[in-house]
Amino acid sequence: PGDLHLHQGLVAYLTDLPVIGTSLRPVDGLSQADTMVAIHTAVTSHSLWFHRPVRIDDW
Fold it and tell me: What does the pLDDT average to over 31-56?
């Protein structure tokens, strides 16, 4: 609960999840549900800067 790095890591992980689905939107017939089944995907670049402390449980 009080670990700043844990909260930052969780925010980074959760903001990375929708990136694949967004990039697949223009591709007819594919969605995020197809990843690891019909196609293999990966995010190769994802950056975040925290300008102040962030808590995952206090949005």
Answer: 80
Count of alpha carbons within 13 angstroms of residue 50, beta-carbon side: 15
Residue 4: exposed, middle, or buried by beta-carbon count in 10 A (0-12, 13-18, 19+)? Answer: exposed
51-57 contacts at long range (C-beta below 8 A, 24 or more positions apart): 53/4, 53/7, 54/7, 54/8, 54/11, 55/7, 56/7, 56/10, 56/11, 56/14, 57/1, 57/7
Put simply, whether the predicted model's pTM sits higher than 0.85 gets the answer no
